[in-house]
Amino acid sequence: MNILVVDDEKLIVKGLKHSLEQQDYKVFVAYNGEEAFQIIESENIDFIILDLMLPDIDGMILCKKIREKYNVPILMLTAKDGDYDKILGFEFGADDYMTKPFNVLELLARIKAITRRLDSEKKKSILSIGSLMINYDERKVFVEEEEKDLTQKEFEILYLLAKNPGRVFTREEIFKYIWEEDPLDVRTIDVHIKNIREKIEKDVKNPKLIKTKWGVGYYFNKI
Fold it and tell me: Which domain holds residue 19?
């Protein structure tokens, strides 16, 4: 895992770098916000340890700037020990918060806890049913490892049905879930289902994944 340490206190950076490398992490270091952002844009950074007080930019602002473009976990370090700063840090996108001076063993434990939680969440965002794989975070659908090009609405309908296998949804329910408004013309659901089947089913005339409950609606077949 690639970790970026952003702090202008060189002794702290040196100590953190040594401790992290002992855990087999690859460590990048930056002493100000500009250096940090250059590294983030040029390297594949998996985790950021970010000091609140930097010489060229406020750590909160940098955290927000990073979060606008990247979904990388951020642990903030600060000499301030106040609830307001913690709350503000979380609002700006930090995943965790530690006050200096800190215990390095605790910091390592928090890094592992955050990465475990995020890995678990990522796995939950992936549905795998037979030869069909749906990656919700990346908005991608694969059938037998071949990516299928679904529209936004097609993807949302497919994901809704697939994560609730066996549950029959009426056309009105699907419309409300996806469009988040009262149904106007529910026949559009039939069109979307037809298009989805053409992209994921082997035999459109005899679909195995998305089934029709005649007179009611649609459901995803339990495999």
Answer: 2-124
Task: For residue 217, give the 3-state DSSP assignment.
Answer: strand
Question: Where residue 82 sits, what CATH number does that domain have?
Answer: 3.40.50.2300
Give the tens place of pLDDT for each residue, 50-84.
998 899 998 889 999 998 888 899 999 987 665 55
Residues 154 and 106 in one domain: no
- End residue of a domain, out of 72, 101, 124: 124
- For the four alpha carbons of 106, 41, 150 and 144, in that order, the dihedral sign comes to negative
Spatial strand order in the sheet of 2-6: 26-30, 2-6, 47-51, 74-78, 96-99
Question: Collapsing DSSP states into helix, strand and coil, what is residue 192?
Answer: helix
Quote the CA–CA distance of 191 and 171 in Å, as a whole number: 11
42 plus 92 within the same structural domain:
yes
Stated pTM of the model: 0.59
Please write the tens of the pLDDT for every residue from 14-36: 999 999 999 999 999 999 999 99
